[in-house]
C-alpha cells in the first residue's frame, strides 16, 4: 500500500445546478449544494431538497446585508 493513497480525496460529480450562473444567487447555490455533497459524501444528492436549503440560507444572508 502506498502512502500516497492517504492523501487522495474522494471523487464527487462537480456537475453544477446552474451551468452558466448569471448572478450571485446561482453561484451561491452551486457552491452550497456542492459543499453539502462533500459533507455527506454522497455523489447523487436530492437536488430539489438541497436547492430549498440553499434558498433558505440565501435569504438569511440577504436579510443580514440589510
Automatic annotation (TrEMBL):
<protein>
    <submittedName>
        <fullName>3396_t:CDS:1</fullName>
    </submittedName>
</protein>
Amino acid at each position: 500500500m502506498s502512502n500516497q493513497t492517504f492523501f487522495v480525496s474522494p471523487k464527487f460529480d462537480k456537475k453544477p445546478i446552474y451551468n452558466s450562473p448569471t448572478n450571485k444567487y446561482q453561484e451561491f447555490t452551486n457552491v452550497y449544494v456542492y459543499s453539502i455533497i462533500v459533507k455527506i459524501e454522497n455523489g447523487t444528492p436530492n437536488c430539489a431538497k438541497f436547492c430549498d436549503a440553499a434558498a433558505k440560507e440565501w435569504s438569511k444572508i440577504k436579510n443580514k446585508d440589510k
